[in-house]
Amino acid sequence: MKARVYVTLKRGVLDPQGKAVCTSLHQLGYREVTDVRVGKYMEVTLGGLPRQEAEHRLRSMCEKLLANTVIEDFRFEFQEE
Amino acid sequence: MRFGIVVFPGSNCDHDVYHVAKHVLGQEASFLWHKETSFSGVDCVVLPGGFAHGDYLRCGAMARFSPIMQAVEAFAGRGGLVLGICNGFQILTESGLLPGALIRNASLQYICRDLYVRVERQDTPYTARIKQGTVLKIPVGHGEGCYYAPEEVLRQLEEQKQVVFRYCDAAGQVNAESNPNGSLRAIAGLCNEGGNVLGLMPHPDRCAEEVLGNAHGRRIFESIVHAWQQARRMRI
Fold first, then answer.
1. Cα separation of B5 and B67, whole Å?
2. For residue B38, what is the domain's CATH number?
């Protein structure tokens, strides 16, 4: 079972990287862009767990390691093979 | 007094701290490999600067789960002195021993230069020999040193006087120009409620001898030794 994990900065946390990307897009002529936030995308492959258990375990992985909940939010989705 | 310096794969200021403890202060010092699960006879644990576990995922994210960290957390819980310098500070926030987080510098640039910090309180083991309001010149070297915490946490930190070092100019004024990385409230270093755990981004280990052009950092290490000796006298 494969999971896609998205980790994004919480609203209110400064994202200088996103700001720099936004400025670059403006310079390229994409004036319609009003904001960019840069986050992380991870693919986690899990073996031999029923879906509900996998979901429970993955949530715990996110809270413990994959995201720092002081500054980041996370969400994930499963992709059936 | 014995300093225990934790060595993670990627630590690169472990020997700097060892040198200061052993040769500048004349104290005992030993290295603690991150895979150890316990240690004894150590009076102050130092988490040194560097790039523990390659800074992968987030700075300090993996290091906080190194086996030694459970023993460090227990030691801190018993009131033991734990000092985190730079990457060590990041590990302390990741582990929850200190509140908040250290994120990418607002400028996006790695900063490596001398700057000034103001000592905000003298009643911690790390500043026991430095008067409140003193301005110290200390070098920094970091890309992720912007201190962040939610507003209610910042308020609490101020109320409980946990901010120990603030970025300032040479005259001790805190302003936007003297804040190198965008840290909220210009926080350069803070302690836990008990005052026994301290993290700071500047490197006192890199400026503890006149031969290096600056010995301001030595005062922090001397404070630790002084505070430890005072505490021991109280126990006897």
1. 15
2. 3.40.50.880
Helix or strand holding residue B208 (H, E): none
What's the rounded Cα separation, in Å, for the pair A14 and A17? 9
Tell me which residue of B192, B205, B200, B187 sits closest to B84, measured CA to CA: B200
Q: Which domain covers residue B79, as residue numbers? A: 2-235
pLDDT of residue B74: 98
Look at the block and give the residue holding tokens 């909220």: B184
Q: Which residues of B touch A70 (CB under 8 A)?
A: 93, 99-101, 148-150
Smallest Cα distance from A33 to chain B, Å: 21
Beta carbons of A68 and B101 less than 8 angstroms apart: yes
Q: What is the pLDDT of residues A17-49, one digit of tens each?
A: 999 999 999 999 999 999 999 999 999 999 989
Cα distance from B17 to chain A (closest Cα, Å)? 28
Q: How many domains does chain B have?
A: 1
Mean pLDDT over each residue of chain A, to the nearest integer: 95
Three-state SS sequence of chain A: CEEEEEEEECCCCCCHHHHHHHHHHHHCCCCCCCCCCCCEEEEEECCCCCHHHHHHHHHHHHHHHHCCCCCEEEEEEEECC
Contact A70 B148 (CB under 8 A): yes
The pair of structure tokens assigned to B35 is: 């895979």
Q: Which domains does chain A have, with CATH numbers?
A: 2-79 (3.30.1280.10)
